[in-house]
Amino acid sequence: MMSGDAFSLPSSAAGFSQDQNNANPNPSPKTNPNHAAKRKRNLPGTPDPDAEVIALSPKSLMATNRFLCEICNKGFQRDQNLQLHRRGHNLPWKLKQRTNKEYAVQSDWKAHSKTCGTREYKCDCGTLFSRKDSFITHRAFCDALAEESARITSVPAATNLNFRNDTVNLPHGFPNRPGVPDIAGIPQFNPGFGPDFSGMNPGNSLGSDHQQKPGLSLWLNQANSHINPNLNLYVPSSSSGLPEMVQMGSANLYGSSSSISFGNLTLSGVPHGLKEEGNSKANMVHTSASLYSDSVQNKQSKPAAMPNMSATALLQKAAQMGSTRSNQSFFVNNYGLMSCSSSSSPTPNPISLNQNPNELHQVFQNVKQAAAESLTTANGVAMSDAMMCTPSNLDQLMMQASGKLQNDQTQLKHQRGSNSIESGLTRDFLGMSSESGRPFSPQDLAKFASLSSAMSLNHFTVNP
Amino acid sequence: MAQEEGSSSVTSPPLQFLPWMPLSPGMGSPYPWLRELKSEDRGLCLIHLLLACANHVAAGSIESANIGLEQISHLASPDGDTMQRIAAYFTAGLADRILKGWPGLHRALNPKQASLISEEILVQRLFFELFPFLKLSYVITNQAIIEAMEGERMVHIIDLNSSEPAQWINLLQTLSARPEGPPHLRITGIHEQKEVLEQMALRLTEEAEKLDISFQFNPIVSKLENLDLESLRVKTGEALAISSVLQLHTLLAMDDEMHRRNSPSGSKNPNSNHFQRVQINQNRRTLGDWLERDVVNAYSSSPDSALSPLSLAASPKMGSFLNALRGLSPKLMVITEQESNHNGFTLMERVTEALNFYAALFDCLESTVSRVSLERHKVEKMLFGEEIKNIIACEGTDRKERHEKLEKWILRLELAGFGIIPLSYHGRLQANRFLQSYGYDGYKIKEENGCLVICWQDRPLFSVSAWKFRRYD
Q1: Which residues of A touch B353 (CB under 8 A)?
Q2: CB B161, CB B191: distance < 8 Å
Q3: What keywords appear on the UniProt entry (chain A) (predicted)?
Q4: Helices B347-368 + B82-99 axis angle, to 10
Q5: Residue B260's pLDDT is what?
Q6: What pTM, to 2 d.p., does this model score?
């Protein structure tokens, strides 16, 4: 494979030539001329004993359109010509293993076996490559690769569901925890790196925080290497860089793990992701899995008690509840929060709850109804909509919820001279201020609770 | 959808006709049925109560606000579910704001004390660990630096908040792998605390030595607003890059009241079109862009609108800082900021925006860290809680957490003479790959105007943008 020096950057030609060792170089000018080595041609008249030679009639041999380009339907006499032509279409080079192809001319067969017999690189999206550099370039931009990684993430590599009460489930955990170690800069060297890592077994990376760091670095270095394959800026050259990386990894473990996990981001000398026979994928899976396992563990050890509605979803819901009720009688004044400059006071009708217990009841009846409506229509889709609960949404909420507008005289007594222009915004949404100064009687709060709990929230399974 | 009238899981509330008695939540609460509330109902209650209470605070209705706070206290808890925690910190902020009306009380309860540096360092480190935001910012920033500094032999980086060594360790490692070899690297780190800078210096020089990179670290112990940029001694031949991670917004802190009173015609009638037209004429350079972006706002909005010229005309500190930066002729400036408008003039504006923003951040934690985690509690209380308190309770030069949205930063920086460098595909690729390796669902990276925005479940949270000094002008 490649040399063990961490920092040497092989040129693409050199890398390529090594891969060509198994292939027959084709001196024919028609096919790929990029070889370093040339094999001696067999003498004509002594064909390769393994080749299957089939006799074709002169007529079929001379037929002009035996090979057809599927893209543009152009016909060729020889397969080589067709392949050359197909290159112009910029197709991904599809390779098949050990095809049973028939050739009249032996040089053609040799040229073909170069492609068939070559060690191939397979991207996760299914495309095969015979050339390493094209493989690299492709992987850098392959979307399937991205999805694959995401899929790997979601596969729980761990069954360790312990709910760690005292320790923190940090994605890139501190190496020796319980509680918080002396983070403020006392280095913690963490040997005992090698065995775990060289195992590269996603299974045993559980609970071992060591692996994620080189894993991360490995992964990221692959990312780096894919960025400029032609420039070979970050292509590390060693497959034996595995132990090297282990060394560098452990050496980087001084100090707190935060810098470790991040500081290892671009370790050169990390083995390149390209190993033969899909090993690269395995590599990445393993190292990534070491990250994922820990993070998956984190995921699963969070309280699985209840699928709580997220706070952002709650806010969105609250805003929607507010915005769907535009026709309620007691929403008298619609003051936008923004227009605080115009501070004409709202209707000076202090509505005390004692006088109008029904009002409060009414509020929540309508809230319930609106919530029901919004839920039946949205059916939870609203919750998953892009959560851009802009001020306008909550504005509407405030606007329309400003039922109990009051300019309670008693309030002004209590203002501590902070009579800002916002005084006009006095809202008494829940009828909190009243003459008696006791906004919520027990009965009202009771109604509040009972009604809100019945607020068509059976849609979500939430346990108290 | 079946409408069940008060059945479900709520036990029939004992109708106690006790007089109102403020009791601590839990055992002695007169409302035991409150505990029966489903988490979702409780969350909705909390939202309503919070907004109502904030309204009272904004209006100066102390009594009502007090009662509101009390009600919320029955439901909120820093150890509960997401909404409960958010409510706990928001009410703390509201209470702090009210208490400032009694300066003596406030000072007695909040004595000036030298905060524990180690705690602050810890909290910042926890934020780095528990979220991908800083790491992503560093990945994107460093990629932009690498690309901009291709071919440069001498690179100088000014770090406006030099607290996390990982950022530059990563850059050192990447630079050492450059085909043309690493440049001579100089990093000027700015921070208020000497100890943090000492730590940085130690770690970075260690790393540079290992990688055999010619490296120099210049610490500057200073508040960002007091920084004298001229004293930074940028050498000729150096290529300069500036990294600002969640710092720039602090320079927007200013005495809002005075500014509004003193601005030319703003005090009389901030809504006047005349005033706004005057502002527009003064900014001829990007008139085209500006009108393109914001025609409606320019002529119709009140000063509360995020993009009104009044608010852009903005802080003197920011203006002079950006000018000084331009004077250094940086090749690149990468800015990471919170993607939310917490700099509104009115309290309600800020409360509603902050509710949405911090709800997403608390959700992140809820999805990724256990509820009993001490670290999570620390981040929520000492980082987010303090930011929330600053946004709600502080005004004028005290209010440092003046986050603004990307669109506003773009306008502001363009007015100051900077031009966007669209972040490269490679940078975005690296960031996405990092996110995948991070292993959590839910985080996304979006592109917007050549900048990258890091989102949690489609809710934008942090933006990263790259800038160059526009030489023509």
Answers
A1: 391
A2: yes
A3: Kinase, Metal-binding, Repeat, Transcription, Transcription regulation, Transferase, Zinc, Zinc-finger
A4: 150
A5: 67
A6: 0.53
pLDDT digits (tens, 9 = 90+) for B296-343: 343 334 444 455 555 565 678 898 898 888 888 899 999 999 999 999
ipTM of the complex: 0.76
Q: To the nearest whole angstrom, how far is the Cα of A161 from the nearest Cα of chain B?
A: 12
Q: Which residues of B touch A398 (CB under 8 A)?
A: 51, 55, 348, 352
Residue A355 tokens, joined? 């006088």
Quick: pLDDT tens for A141-182. Answer: 665 555 555 555 444 433 333 333 333 333 443 343 344 444
Q: Which residue of A has its CA nearest to B75?
A: A449
Give the single-character DSSP code of B155: E
A228 CB-contact burial (10 Å; exposed 0-12 / middle 13-18 / buried 19+): middle
Q: Under an 8 A CB cutoff, do B61 and A311 touch?
A: no
The minimal CB distance from B47 to the residues A216, A314, A425 is found for: A314
Task: Give the residue from chain B lying closest to A215, CA to CA.
Answer: B437
Residue A340 structure tokens: 């605080």
Looking at residue B440, its pLDDT comes to 65
Helix (H) or strand (E) holding B445: strand B443-448
A124 contacts A144 by C-beta, under 8 angstroms: yes
Give the integer Cα–Cα distance in Å for B473 and B469: 10
Identify all chain A residues contacting B370, using CB atoms and an 8 Å cutoff.
163-165, 168-169, 301-303
Going from the C-alpha of B330 to that of each of B150, B160, B220, B286, B405, the distances in angstroms are: 15, 14, 19, 21, 23
What b/e string do you get for B195-233 counting C-beta neighbours within 10 Å, with b at 16 or more?
Answer: ebbebbbebbebbbeebebebebbbbeeebeebebeebe
Task: Select from A259, A258, A284 the least CA-distant residue to A270.
Answer: A284
Q: What separation in angstroms does the CA of B413 have from each of B314, B320, B347, B416, B417?
A: 12, 12, 26, 5, 6
Residue A135 and residue A140: Cα distance in Å, rounded? 9
Helix (H, G, I), strand (E, B) or coil at A451: helix
B1/A459 CB distance under 8 A: yes
Q: How far apart are CA B348 and CA A54, in angstroms?
A: 86
Least confident range of A193-202, B39-48, B87-96, B138-147:
A193-202
Per-residue pLDDT reduced to its tens digit, B348-394: 999 999 999 999 999 999 998 888 999 999 999 999 999 999 999 99
Gyration radius from chain B CA atoms = 24
